Predict the 3D structure of the following.
Amino acid sequence: MAGSNFIDHVRLYCRSGNGGAGAVHFRREKHVPKGGPDGGDGGRGGHIILRGNKQMWTLLHLRYQKHVFAENGEGGSGHGSTGADGKDIILDVPLGTVAKIAEPEEEFLFEITEDGQEVVLLPGGRGGLGNTHFKTATNQTPRFAQPGESGQENLMVLELKLLADVGLVGFPNAGKSTLLSVVSAAKPEIADYPFTTLVPNLGVVPYRDHRSFVMADIPGIIEGAAEGKGLGIRFLRHIERNSILLFLVPADAADIQKEYDILLGELRKYNPELLDKERILAISKCDMLDEEMMEEMKELLPKDIESVFISSVAQMGLQELKDLIWKRINQ
């Protein structure tokens, strides 16, 4: 994912189409001197619809589309003719897109989770009834019809939460991008400085018997991220969609337990429900350790989480890690 292309939050001013007015019209033919009302109904206003597209991974295409206005329905006409419906506007969005009303305060509407799924964001107004509908025993020539119903308008928020089986959680330089690049075909930017990863990266990890799972590398969390420090909470929302949280702490960390506790604390402050997810702890960069050092380190690891020693560079422990992840996914 190129950083400039990954957009996970857009605001759009949307307006669905007004319904067309019903017609006031009377049948006028040479051999029907007293024809009754035959005004047709107005057409429906255009809907604004979101449609899931599994080929998309960003909201970039909507970044500069500040206004989305659907067509109005056409008015009815004589001979009972109904006006044409306004053209719907269909916005393709990535799976995991959440739609919200922006004002006066954000209100959740729905989420797009399946390819081809279509949900009406704002419905168009109904067309008005023509005067045909208002003929009664006491009023054979009604000279009125319904106006079309107004469409709806609102400032909307579209927010993308990436759909992945496993989310990588760790401080900057914990080795998350390196791990993702080794176990999948993803090619995240990798360098030896903090915050190399500025946007989430997704990778499909192949497993045995042609099976696979999706792993997401979330930009590094630092202490205080939930309060907006570092990259802040901008990308923490993507962790909410992961079924498993894979914590990465490097073997050369000063205090593995402390780093793990800080990461847990940041997730808890952002959303306590994140701690209900399955968790795995991977100690990265273990090519610098010998067997004796790893045995000693095991005694210092958190006791409430299953742990595995790995090295992405030396490709050590990666199959064990994938086996553990697959087991948890299918529990």
Notes: The longest helix spans residues 256-270.
